[in-house]
Amino acid sequence: MAKVLIFHHSMGLTEGIHTFADELRKEGHTVFVPDLYEGHVFRTIKDGMAYVKEIGFEEMMERGARVAHELPSDIVYAGFSLGVLPAQKLAQTREGAIGALLFYSCVPAAMFGSPWPSELPVQIHGMDADPYFVDEGDLGAARELVASANQAELFLYPGDQHLFADSSLPSYDADATALLLERVLEFLRQFK
Q: I need a surface site. Which of 43, 87, 124, 157 has the fewest CB within 10 A?
């Protein structure tokens, strides 16, 4: 079974992130869910992003890298929104990565100084009318990444919610999350 390292979104390590991790564990996967905010959880994306600006984006990614370097290298990196930054960077640049799951976000591969490894499997999930995902360039970056990789999938779900797979938030969409989870579990089956 796969080893999966999940990085939380800008609101912090919410109960919904734990619930998602538990769904993967039920299928036998080993899941690591570090708290990059050192206990802080925020009520809004805006508040969470203010905290990130205070500590710095580079520090956020460094915290993710420090956690990853304590774990085996043959891992699937997963990130939710802001958590995509360390997940995508590590998947792209850390030797031994076996896959990536990018939820609600994607950045141009060039941001990390190298192209996406063409043989590294990746899934990207987002809502087709999510203003963060669609209007801020993430969808375009996702399409470019998928076009450059041999094992890449982009899944768009109907709706405009950003953190739609976090069951502890008002933005939660149960139907979209069920389909997302089904696709993620199918993706992880290749690493048995």
A: 43
